[in-house]
Amino acid sequence: MEVNSRIKELREEIRKHDYRYYILDAPLISDAEYDRQMQELKKLEEEHPQFITPDSPTQRVAGTAVEKFSPTRHRFPLLSLDNAFSYQHLMEFHRRLGRVARKLSYMAELKIDGVSIALVYENGVLLNAATRGDGLVGEDVTANIRTIKAIPLRLRDPLPRLEVRGEIFMPKQEFLRLNEEKEEKGERVFANPRNAAAGSLRQLDPRVTASRALSAFIYDIIYVEANPLVEQEEALRFLQEQGLPVNPEARFCADIEAVLAYSEEYAEKRHELPYEIDGVVVKLNTFAEREELGSTARSPRWAMAYKFPAEEKETRLLGVEINVGRTGIIAPTALLEPVLLAGTTVSRASMHNFDLLREKDLRIGDMVLIHKAGDIIPEIISSLPERRRGEERTIMPPENCPACDSKVVRFAGEVAYRCENINCPARLKESLIFFASRGAMDIDGLGPAVIEQLVNREMVKGIDDLYRLSEQDISLLERMGPKSAANLIKAITESKSRPLSRLLTALGIRHIGAKSAKILSRHFHDIDDFYKVGVEKLTSIPEIGSKMAESVINFFAEPRNRETIENLKALGVNTREAVYEAGEQLLQGKTFVLTGTLPGLTRQQASEMIESRGGKVSSSVSKKTSYVVAGDDPGSKLDKALQLGLTILDEEGFLNLPGLS
Ligand code: IVH
């Protein structure tokens, strides 16, 4: 088949599957099969870039960051809606409309709690996306919108021009995931999915938007050329037929009673929906009747938002429990007098961090107002200070970890307090899982299930205990035969001789991943060197920033960590860098030439690394040279290497050589 036909065929297929997956939530093929099609398309487009079009599914990949969003004037103002807060208000609205027709029918739709957006399609291709802004001028967020999979880059038909309006939202589940991630990073959490959606959409770097699973519903046609549509029900069907995401809960209501029933129904069902809604939008169905009523400067006369009553309750804050999370974050949890809220009895509320607690001036004994963030997580909105009786007590962050008594630390610029003790009982399982993992000490056979048992049976109370285990101990565990016990002990013993960089990684020091651990261990050859190092020395290493330095210092300042390290040493765990297992002379017989300045290594260090692994460093390039390692401002050696067609590596390529990683 001709390449371009295959490309087109693949795009059609992928679009269909995106629709099934992201909009209908009913995929037809496996993820693997989808990936295969996407890979084939990517490959063909790479080989034939002349066939790439902006509406290809490969072109959703996030582009580069912008400095600010450019303002966009909407061709038609994006109006707002009037609010009704009771059924009585809704009935008044209905009676007002009575003057246009005797019998009025409506479309009742969910009021999605997200960010209003206008999309322009030209010849069926997404051209432009803008936020509502003040209704007249919004911000151009096209690059970000393109990353949202529910929004098609191309319509089913090549309509000359279609302008639509809809809502970008963050599903509840994604909101919870994102907040958990933020908490783990010590960042501030989003108050609700709407803020999270707005924050994610207003990212100058589209890659950030792409990393958040935003979704969308389209509910209004602003403009379509030669408009044949006469009513909203038909318009929604038309939008759907064009492949746009339309909310499936919208319902035709033959009279206002049906609208009230719909509202009643969704006031209950809202908690079961995967996204947040804050009410119901009632729209006159027939466009001709809408025309007759017209709009005010602010809002159409033919539509009304019925807002659900806020799901908030008052209750008493009885106390605060301080918990250590599995990654060492110390967070307060409010203990509340139980109340019924949005379908469940609530007796605890997340307080996220101590800053929020202080900002809200919450005191034990206070009456507080609570709600559910993302419709799920109970949270305190505010205290009710006017109800104080004078016996209330303020809450202070703890100085010591409630689980292990280590000194609590707080990193600059973060809201979280943390326990830095790697062996803290609250953190231990996570510490062990990470310690044993592939990129760390790489202990084969020591996975989460085994760790779970070792910790629960109190056979391991700290990572150093791993090296105290015997075959006999291990064979006591479930699903552990003598053979696997022997293998596990062998793997644990082998891990003792890993180089310092691996051990540093395995200790799980915040901000210190495999790469920075490698850099650190190149500068400090022995773990003892970290006990007395200062910020300045650490930050004088080009790749080590102040956050990393602070973290290293905090880690080694914790006496319990020093004790653990001393124990590891006593048990025979290597704590130096230049240790290679016997026979690990992987660069034997290889000749290297170094030229130019490497960003992270001195020539001396690079040479040592090569020679300690059996390689040779030569000063001149010849046919026999195995690798030329080139940094900035390379000399004529590089030219010569190019002429000879030799393998040229940059620093990263060099460090990734099998013998060096
Ligand atoms: S119709 C001219 N339909 O609610 C009518 N709006 O409070 C345009 N919203 O700014 C709006 N779900 O962002 C409409 N099904 C829905 C909606 C909806 C959410 C938002 C929209 C609007 C706000 C008004």
Could you explain the architecture of this structure?
The protein has 661 residues and is of the alpha+beta class. It folds into five domains: 3-59, Helix hairpin bin (Helix Hairpins), CATH 1.10.287; 72-307, DNA ligase/mRNA capping enzyme (D-amino Acid Aminotransferase, Chain A, domain 1), CATH 3.30.470; 313-394, Nucleic acid-binding proteins (OB fold (Dihydrolipoamide Acetyltransferase, E2P), Beta Barrel), CATH 2.40.50.140; 428-570, 5' to 3' exonuclease, C-terminal subdomain (DNA polymerase, domain 1); 582-655, Rossmann fold (3-Layer(aba) Sandwich). 34% of the residues lie in helices and 21% in strands. Strands 12, 13, 14, 16, 17, 19 and 20 form a seven-stranded antiparallel beta sheet that branches. Helix 21 (603-612) links the parallel strand 21 (591-595) and strand 22 (616-618). Helix 1 runs antiparallel to helix 2, helix 12 packs antiparallel against helix 13 and helix 16 packs across helix 17 (514-523). The two termini are 44 Å apart. Mean pLDDT is 91; it is low at 579-583. Bound molecules: 2-(butylsulfanyl)adenosine. 2-(butylsulfanyl)adenosine (IVH) binds at residues 79-81, 109, 111-112, 116, 167, 219-220, 281, 300, 303, 305. 2-(butylsulfanyl)adenosine (IVH) is lined by residues 79-81, 109, 111-112, 116, 167, 219-220, 281, 300, 303, 305.
